[in-house]
Protein: Phosphoglycolate phosphatase
Amino acid sequence: MNSKTTTTTETATATESASGTQLLSAQNVASLFNSVDAFLFDCDGVIWKGDKLIDGVPQTLEMLRSKGKKLVFVTNNSSKSRGQYAQKFHSLGISVSQDEIFSSSFAAAMYLKLNNFPTDKKVYVIGGEGILEELRLAGYTGLGGPEDAEKRVELKSNSLFEHDKSVGAVVVGLDPYVNYYKLQYGTLCLRENPGCLFIATNRDAVGHMTDLQEWPGAGCMVAAICGSTEREPIVVGKPSTFMMDFLLQRFEVSTSRMCMVGDRLDTDILFGQNAGCKTLLVLSGVTTQSTLQDPSNKILPDYYTSQVSDILELLGR
Amino acid sequence: MNSKTTTTTETATATESASGTQLLSAQNVASLFNSVDAFLFDCDGVIWKGDKLIDGVPQTLEMLRSKGKKLVFVTNNSSKSRGQYAQKFHSLGISVSQDEIFSSSFAAAMYLKLNNFPTDKKVYVIGGEGILEELRLAGYTGLGGPEDAEKRVELKSNSLFEHDKSVGAVVVGLDPYVNYYKLQYGTLCLRENPGCLFIATNRDAVGHMTDLQEWPGAGCMVAAICGSTEREPIVVGKPSTFMMDFLLQRFEVSTSRMCMVGDRLDTDILFGQNAGCKTLLVLSGVTTQSTLQDPSNKILPDYYTSQVSDILELLGR
Structure:
């Protein structure tokens, strides 16, 4: 738990649980609001669900901006680049600049850049177009991804599976077109190309690939490559705080005056806590109140509420 | 190290390494031979490589049989059923009965049988035909496997991925036709069907799917499902000693009078050691002498030699 602001009103209220996690209320919302200069939002399950905007989000974001709060969108979804994300926001009627978006696809490219990964080395991608686009924007040559979706392997005597020896990094993210070709390609690069980096956009077990149900997430593909290579990846998405350095540089707000708003305990809330931010769990995504309050759950946000628009509603009371 | 027989000759020989692992030699081969009633062989990398028999194997097996030794073939490869394995042996000119073969596909079916898995429940398979055939022989209904190789998912709003609620176990083995459909099917069964078992044939990281190189093994697909379900599997193949109960029942030989012969330290040799057998590593498969002797290697066989036929050659001297 980070920087919990405690007032007499709060400690007295019945909405505070034994653990210290508080239900967001008309009593404590102002204290959260006043102690924060930047709100960091996860997207899926917070801003939207699949292609459907969650009720009251545009009005809430507008109010926060009008009050001078900085807004940042931090997503583990690597299927889109930042530009593609900005387009998605626009198509849903929310104006967001590309600079306010921090996706794990961008983080993967930035990890390479910060670590002076040579531009004459290539990057093999198990994942979507978003990763390849961010790599291109950062000046790197990506291989694999959607291009290898339909490729098949030949398991015949004397047939050699060839891979590019100049691949110096394998980036693994969510890939609905994962296949044995890609698994073998990534595995060979990591096992045979000296010094080849293994980068995971994130390790989410499942995610809402469709609005009605959850599907295997990047954690599935990343684990597959861990299994075949017996290596552990560098994780650049949440809950790793790798992206926080960029956020700090751009926004010049101390992490103690940031609030991470998300629907996942093990990525969003843990990320916020790892970085020293305040944390607000919304129940509009994958986490239910009973999961939050289960004794086995050790990740406790500072606040929780049903959805983002509660901030607007509670402040307006 | 198990039941190491030490004679003056052996301890004096220069072929004994500091660790106690002995190079098989004309001096120690008789002692191994005389202390063993049953030889357990791994197949790939020991008997054959891909579709190619390793030199001298038929003659060695024939000699062992003629001297009254029992022969057992214990393989983690789940792509074939025991019947299909017996055929492969015959096609290579070696006469082996189905009862002498213990494959991880058979082990998966036997695990269900021993645990009274109800026959009105179904089993979803991420893996090959061998698993489905062993399930059928044990009286179970298998789903998935090769049948789902070309299936694609629809990631559209309002489209629900349906799965069979009567699936009570998911068996995962090596699957060169792994795809997102199968990963989602297995994941949904394990996350949503109450009490659904998660069984792994084995967790080998890689294997010689072709003679020229290694490919991701069952450990890759098993890890993928661990990643999406956040569960750990029951492993029935090596190094788990689950199959040993069947071996003991059939052959009535105490494990201290068995010798496990294999090419992998982390499966074959560990399996032998876990079960209390003597162990002989052959260097005709995935393990090199430098891997064996690397200080980071903690799995030390009793003996090592270049290939199975050395037993015949050394005894004949």
About this structure: The longest strand of chain B covers residues 70-75. Chain B touches chain A through 46 residues (CB under 8 Å). The two ends of chain B are 27 Å apart (CA to CA). Residues 180-192 of chain B form the longest helix (13 residues).
